[in-house]
Write a structure and sequence with these properties.
The complex is a heterotrimer of chains A (95), B (492) and C (495).
Chain A (H helix, E strand, L loop, with lengths): L4 H10 L9 H15 L34 H5 L5 E2 L2 E5 L4
Antiparallel strand pairs in A: 1-2
Helix pairs in contact in A: 1-2
Chain B lengths: L8 H9 L5 H13 L7 E4 L1 H16 L10 E5 L26 H8 L3 E6 L38 H8 L5 E6 L5 H7 L2 E4 L19 E6 L2 H11 L29 E5 L9 H16 L3 E5 L7 H16 L17 H12 L2 H14 L5 H21 L5 E5 L15 H5 L6 H6 L3 E8 L5 E7 L5 H15 L12
Parallel strand pairs in B: 2-3, 2-4, 7-8, 7-9
Antiparallel strand pairs in B: 1-3, 4-6, 5-6, 5-10, 9-11, 10-11
Helix pairs in contact in B: 2-3, 5-6, 9-11, 9-12
Chain C lengths: L12 E3 L2 E14 L38 H13 L7 E2 L2 E4 L9 E4 L9 E6 L5 E13 L3 E7 L2 E5 L6 E7 L6 H18 L11 E10 L9 E6 L2 H20 L8 E5 L4 E4 L12 E2 L6 E2 L2 H9 L5 H12 L3 H8 L2 H11 L4 H19 L10 H12 L5 H14 L3 H8 L7 H14 L1 H9 L4 H11 L6 H12 L6
Parallel strand pairs in C: 12-13
Antiparallel strand pairs in C: 1-2, 2-10, 2-11, 3-16, 4-5, 4-15, 6-7, 7-10, 8-9, 11-12, 13-14
Helix pairs in contact in C: 2-3, 5-6, 7-8, 7-9, 9-10, 12-14, 12-15, 14-15
Classes of the chains: A mainly alpha (95), B alpha/beta (492), C alpha+beta (495).
The complex binds magnesium ion and zinc ion.
């Protein structure tokens, strides 16, 4: 599997990273080098092997239904590039 | 007064208890050393005022014969750890100006035990790198130089600020994180000790995430004892981290000096890779001989899927990071580059905010998770990961601990490998298996390369058996008698 | 997969080229009733000041990690059991990756491949006593997103993350429905079940229950057509309108030789039409993968069994019991079980009383008044206890049925006790034959001509009853009046 420049443009879009057209050839080259290299995993017989879901063998702990956080409007917005009246502000999103 | 920074963490701890000097004096000594070491670029933020306040508070406690296990001991903190009210950027442009309103669990544990924070240490951007050259704040320089050369050498990565600072005595010890070798490889490159504990041993809460299923915090320290003391404070169950494991933290220091009689040390044959320098091989053999002499039994073991570990890692880690880094969007914190609409803003912000290596990994990760490729890449990699973990489980039926080199070479020069990402990735060939299987691993300095740079040996343990690691590491340290120190060339 | 159903001619839509069949599947997002969010300790309550119910986890601050709320998991299991569904003892949380300002993590934690609840079913109740079984495909737990407000400032959207991370159950039906009425009945019934279980309050105005409707059309019984998904419809009425509009739109396109484009659409209630959501149309690739911050969710069969043992009686069971235990009609029973509170109210009234009488009083008189006054059963001024007492007063002859209606009105206004109202207003039924006889004698004496006529035409006796009731302000026991009157007029008492 080899990625072409259109594919790079598409995944850059999915990842929301602006990529200039003149960067595409080099990026495609780098990505292909890495992808070609990881392709060697194809050699491994993994039929019937469970994919790892966690590096630790344990089941998930659960917390109680108790409110433990809140009233942090200042704390959660003070680092925002733009905030107003307790809201985060972003360019208008059209639906 | 003699140079207080010469003492180890354990030495300083004992001296403070005996009131030979104060924490404030010790802290000032370190702040002075840091000031004189700008050439290393190890610190990205120095919190001198806070450090002196913390030291004074510790002195009050020490004066009353009180205080925790790390009372008054000045440490450096990798910039990946959120520190409340103190700039935390993961050395990425995208986290410009971010001051977290919370403190990471690991650093909270350190402050609980009385430690003093000197500042934030440089690292590869979002911990993605093996040489600390991807930091937005520039590369970190290794205090070590090749014999007779002035070439700037990398300190390893991603915890390069931590390894450089510990090696150059700019802190007693440092926090670090390890996703594919980022504690052990820099430790090996700088003649320091670094341990990545078992996945789940240290809380990940408040540590900027790179690859969640692999990330684990641990210390870089001057010797095995210091690492044991540090890890005991850093580790512990945290109910805020679903992957944290609820089991008591042993007194690791107590494991040091215990006999190796009856201990079986496995030597995995697959770690003898093509093109590995002879001196690394020779060092490995020395390690085998040292442990044998200390009473251990040496057994040959096989980890047949070793060669697939790096490609597996370079699917799993980018996949997880592509998702973990989606939150850096210019809305709630950090950098924002305005755009004509929301998508434009996202794209410009993330293009400007992420460096080349981060961008590369996010794109790879996005690709391997995308429709039609998930099974071939991500699912396949997670299956191979299961096989890698099984290899270890199988090996541990024959031995108690594994001995390997930490890295396939000594530290290299800054800029030598940046043009070729793959050659950089190969640095992690011996360390990455451990992350994939969630096991603990420790790097101990064991000798010098022919051109005078430190080399490390790695011990890999069973899940949650850090005590055995410390016990064997201590024996290795005793046998190696690694006393070399870098010449102080950087002091301004 | 989907149920094979013979198309019903009533459900078909007449087009220019013949009949069309609508195929509908619904994805309902139901907010889990809980105090805290699914993966954070912030409050899940509705309507707070912006970003005040947001933890560092909800704001996706660097290094923050999710920890699951046990109660939300139990609520999902409980709902699964209520839908007679398969409970999966091992399920996985996945990340659904996409960028949106009200999705702070850049991904939604959801369940993709291995949901906590598998296949189940719902019986829906339709007009004329018809019912249909609608298959449930799955139920999974996921996080809600925040809210973007687009009209607070020029060229800007304002983001509030209070809802971000609130637990949702996404309940996916099979494409088993064939008409807007069935879809409405499905949501109605699902809402009823959720409210019985107490796992979702079903409040559609506050967005606790939202439906995504998948609509396609086909020739009756033919192969499935391309579907469009109408997102986030937030009232049962709108669901019906959206389906009707969308089905006709698709039929029109197909009949003109066009093709349906699979897409996401929005229902505009003001215009009564669906519109393409072009902004969201850009190729979506959610890149699902298991969330590495979480472990597999493992449940013990014993815990599931314990939840099952504590399950309340569900509407279908309650309906069957009301029919068998109280002898109610299927229609009355269906009406009564629509809300658990109503059924409970009825049972409290009916207990130890004439069930038919109780059902009448609840469904006709009380519901009539509640509807007129815009009250709900929860805010009813007449309590079950008082309504029961009223029925007792009728049964023991203290009041007549007619007076009872008058007392009921007073009870509705004042919330008063019927026995007290009877005493205070002197409404006790007169059964004293001497008093009734005197009243009858007075009417007979005043209307000798009518007496003669009644003797010839016994049906005129009714006029005398009316006069007597009037002169006794309706308090005379009608049965006693009839008997004495018959005797006095020389008619048989059956007359
Ligand atoms: Mg959906
Ligand atoms: Zn959903």
């Amino acid at each position: 599997m080899s990625v072409d420049q259109n594919t790079v443009r598409h995944i850059a879009r999915l990842a929301r990273i602006a990529v200039r057209d003149d960067e595409l050839p080099a990026l495609a080259g780098e990505l292909n080098t890495i992808l070609d290299w990881v392709e060697q995993l194809g050699e491994v017989d993994t039929k019937g092997v469970e994919p790892m879901t966690s590096a630790v063998a344990m089941s998930m702990k659960m917390r109680d239904d108790v409110v433990t956080a809140g009233n942090l409007q200042k704390e959660v917005t003070e680092n925002a590039p733009r905030a107003e009246d307790g809201f985060y502000v972003v360019p208008r999103v059209v639906e | 007064m003699t140079d207080l920074t010469k003492l180890t963490l354990a030495g300083a701890r004992d001296a403070l208890k005996k009131k030979e000097f104060t924490s404030l004096e010790l802290t000032d000594a370190y702040l002075g050393a840091i000031e004189g070491a700008a050439a290393l670029n190890a610190y990205v933020t120095v919190t001198g005022d806070e450090a002196r306040e913390m030291a004074k508070a510790s002195d009050l406690k020490l004066g009353k014969g009180q205080g925790g296990a790390l009372e008054g001991l000045p440490l450096g903190i990798k910039d990946l750890f959120a520190t409340k009210g103190v700039l935390t950027t993961a050395c990425s442009h995208i986290l410009d100006g971010f001051k977290p309103p919370y403190e990471s669990q690991v650093t909270s544990n350190l402050w609980r035990d009385g430690a003093v924070m000197l500042g934030k240490l440089n690292n590869d951007e979002f911990a993605m790198g093996s040489s600390n050259e991807t930091s937005f704040y520039g590369p970190v320089v290794n205090p070590w130089r090749r014999k007779g050369e002035e070439t700037k050498i990398v300190p390893g990565g991603s915890s390069g600020g931590s390894s450089s600072a510990v090696a150059a005595k700019l802190c007693l010890a440092a926090t670090a994180t390890d996703t594919g070798g980022s504690i052990r490889q820099p430790a090996a490159f700088t003649g320091t000790v670094g341990i990545k504990p078992t996945y789940g041993r240290c809380s990940r809460w408040g540590i900027v995430a790179f690859a969640s299923s692999l990330d684990q915090a641990g210390p870089i320290a001057r010797d095995v004892r210091d690492a044991a003391i540090m890890l005991r404070s850093m580790a512990g169950y945290d109910d805020k981290d679903s992957t944290s494991v609820d089991r008591p933290v042993p007194d690791y220091e107590a494991a040091l000096g215990q006999s190796l009689k009856g201990l079986r040390v496995g030597i995995p044959k697959e770690y003898r890779v093509d093109g590995m320098p002879a001196e690394i091989d020779a060092l490995w053999q020395k390690g085998i001989d040292w442990l044998k002499a200390a009473g251990a039994e040496i057994v040959d073991v096989s980890l047949p899927h070793t060669k697939y570990a790096l490609p597996t890692y370079y699917i799993v880690a980018p996949a997880e990071c592509s998702s973990n880094l989606a939150r850096y969007d210019g809305v709630r914190y950090g950098l924002r580059v305005e755009g004509k609409d929301i998508t434009d803003m996202y794209e410009k912000t993330r293009a400007a905010g992420f460096g080349a290596e981060v961008r590369r990994r996010v794109l790879i990760g996005t690709y391997v998770l995308s429709a039609g490729y998930y099974d071939a890449y991500y699912l396949k990699a997670q299956q191979v990961r299961t096989l890698i973990a099984r290899d270890f489980a199988e090996a541990y039926t024959k031995c108690d601990v594994l001995l390997t080199p930490t890295a396939p070479s000594a530290a290299f020069g800054i800029g030598e490998k940046t043009a070729d990402p793959l050659s950089m990735y190969l640095n992690d060939v011996f360390t990455v298996t451990v992350n994939l299987a969630g096991l603990p691993g420790i790097s101990v300095p064991a000798g010098l390369s022919s051109d005078g740079l430190p080399l490390g040996l790695q011990l890999i343990g069973k899940t949650f058996d850090e005590e055995t690691l410390f016990r064997v590491a201590y024996a290795l340290e005793e046998a190696a008698q690694f006393k070399a120190e870098p010449a102080v060339w950087w002091r301004a | 997969m989907m149920r094979n159903r013979e198309p019903r001619s009533e459900d078909l839509i007449k087009g220019m080229t013949g009949d069309w069949e609508i195929v509908l599947g619904l994805e309902v997002h139901a907010q889990v009733t809980s105090k805290a969010k699914l993966f954070s300790g912030a409050s899940a309550e509705f309507g707070a000041e912006p970003n005040t119910q947001v933890s560092f986890v909800d704001a996706a601050m660097p290094g923050m990690l999710p920890v699951i709320n046990r109660y939300c998991v139990e609520q999902a299991v409980k709902t699964g059991l209520g839908l007679k569904a398969q409970i999966n003892l091992r399920s996985i949380f996945d990340r659904k990756n996409y960028f949106y300002p009200d999705l702070p993590q850049g991904y939604q934690i959801s369940q993709f491949k291995n949901p906590v609840v598998g296949e189940g079913e719902i019986v829906i109740d339709l007009a004329g006593g018809r019912s249909e079984v609608i298959g449930i495909e799955r139920l999974h737990l996921e996080q809600d997103a925040g809210k973007s407000i687009h009209d607070l400032g020029p060229a800007a959207s304002h983001v509030d993350l209070n809802r971000s991370g609130v637990a949702l159950m996404e309940i996916v039906s099979k494409p088993d429905m064939r008409s807007a009425d069935e879809a409405k009945a499905y949501v109605t019934k699902l809402r009823t079940i959720l409210r019985y279980l107490g796992t979702c309050d079903g409040n559609m105005e506050e967005g606790s229950l939202r439906a995504d409707v998948n609509v396609s059309v086909r020739k009756p019984g033919g192969p499935l057509g391309t579907r469009c998904e109408i997102k986030n419809v937030n009232s049962i009425r709108f669901i019906g309108q959206a389906i009707e509009y969308e089905a006709r739109r698709q039929i029109e396109i197909l009949e003109e030789g066009g093709k349906i484009v699979q897409e996401t659409r929005l229902f505009d209630p003001k215009a009564g039409e669906t519109r393409s959501m072009r902004s969201k149309e850009e190729a979506h690739d959610y890149r699902y993968f298991p969330d590495p911050d979480l472990l597999p969710l493992e449940l013990k069969q014993a815990d599931v069994d314990a939840i099952k043992a504590r399950l309340p009686e569900l509407p279908d069971d309650k309906k069957a019991r009301l029919i068998s235990e109280f002898g109610l009609s299927a229609y009355d029973a269906t009406v009564l079980v629509g809300e658990k509170a109503t059924a409970d109210f009825f049972e409290a009234v009916a207990k130890g009383r004439d069930a038919k009488l109780a059902s009448n009083w609840v469904t006709v008189e009380l519901f009539g008044a509640l509807n007129r006054e815009g009250h709900s059963i929860e805010t009813s001024p007449v309590s079950a206890e008082h309504l029961g007492k009223l029925i007792d007063l009728i049964a023991d002859g203290t009041i007549s049925g007619r007076i009872a209606k008058q007392i009921f009105e007073s009870m509705y206004k004042t919330g008063g006790d019927p026995a007290e109202i009877v005493e205070k207003e002197g409404l006790r039924q007169v059964t004293d034959t001497t008093a009734i006889e005197a009243a009858i004698d007075a009417v007979i004496a005043a209307n000798p001509d009518k007496v003669e006529q009644a003797k010839a035409k016994p049906s005129l006796a009714g006029w005398f009853v009316g006069q007597v009731m009037k002169s006794t302000s309706g308090k005379a026991n009608p049965q006693v009046v009839n008997e004495i009157l018959a005797r006095k007029l020389g008619l048989s008492s059956e007359g």
